[in-house]
Amino acid sequence: NFRSLLKAFNVDLQSRSFWDVVRKQLQSAIRGEMSHSEIAQLCAALTLWRRFFQHQDTHERLAIITTCLPVPRRSLLPPLISVDRTSFLRSSAAQILNMSQEQLLSRVIIQYQGEAGIDGGGLT
Hints:
Strand order of the largest sheet: 1-2
Number of helices: 6
Order of helices and strands: HHHHEHHE
Distance between the termini: 46 Å
Helix content: 40-55%
Shape: globular
Radius of gyration: 17 Å
């Protein structure tokens, strides 16, 4: 159930956002700040997360996720992610994990390193 999922990620009643707690844990893992046992615990929590959503209807999954997220506010400039095509995941993961929930829900501009254009659905 959802309570066991919250417990697996060490989310308590004082936590303001489930997503902030999970994002901080993933950032710590990427920066190498976690011990092997903490990484194992995080992997177990992510597995539990996958199992939790595995049996949910796609619409139910989306409803659960969106109810946990705040309504986005429009900022003047959309967030920019600089991506290396040869190592897409490595070059983008840390940038994405450092984005706020508001930025994640907004339009994101992707710029490929070494390319003059910006990805706006097609290179311009």
